[in-house]
């Protein structure tokens, strides 16, 4: 009996120790999962964000130094010169009638027929807009993202028919949605809310996936598609999106008036955005929160001049970045439908972006020889105006 009682106490002691060990492991596991791991992830995210911020800053400094010392190409020189011939007067009158403030560049049969600024770049100092003025281009950047993705298709690293789940986990309908559907805004993806804090590129992609809405797989303009495509590009290449844009577009074309936000604020030729009433647009200058451009990964955080923007769009159409056959494959829809960052009308494409009280639009034929570029800084929509100018310009062009 004594032996049984003694064994009973030992058994309860062992069970108690085992239960305590299990509870301890569970408590520590919960502590690790719910506190330590999130804290570590937050610290890692801050470190990544700090690294990318510093990298962007040094990249921008390098770009500005190159801009100051690099010998400009003849094309860049030509596109920085003001051109206002008598034949352009009807176009100027149309712009003035529309109260346009910004820079206009018009190219017909490869010749610049109008390149000038209207209104103020800085109303307080009296500095005027001109060919050298720099603006944000907003959603026009999506077309650049599409081209980077198509570059990977040419290299055999990606296929437009691939499901997004092959590259980014955690998307509920990822096996049913292809990269092509995302390029054409037919994925059904949208965001439940706006990104609340500044994040690294990887953090932006993770946050976007965690906050996706899933709708019908039909056309709906939702920028998150291109945020996720930028994530695919970074994952496949192992490089930051901004670095790839610099290498594959800016440096390849020897552009000297382009960069990423927020470095526009350090540029002496920045054109400020204004959102005052139509009767007095310069009465209120728009101040953009840093969060706004941080969350525009792959979708709208690039600035440029009218001349640089023309060179980028022409280079894409002329097969200087990806093959011309690849451009045709990329832009698979027409009749004015949205496809891979452009509205494709068959014989010409239109791009448009609105951000920070600035509006940008390009209209260009497939040869890149006929084009209109409008960059505005008084919160006006430029899409219809650019299209009207283009059609007026090409009348009689063969």
TrEMBL record:
Gene3D superfamilies, per the entry: DD-peptidase/beta-lactamase superfamily
InterPro entries in the cross-refs: AmpC-like (IPR050491), Beta-lactam-related (IPR001466), Beta-lactam/transpept-like (IPR012338)
GO cellular component, as recorded: membrane
Top EC class for this record: hydrolase
Residue stretches making up the Beta-lactamase-related domain: 100-386
Coiled-coil parts of chain: 48-78
Domain of life of the native organism: Bacteria
Subcellular location: Membrane
Pfam family, one: Beta-lactamase
The name this protein goes by in its record: Serine hydrolase domain-containing protein
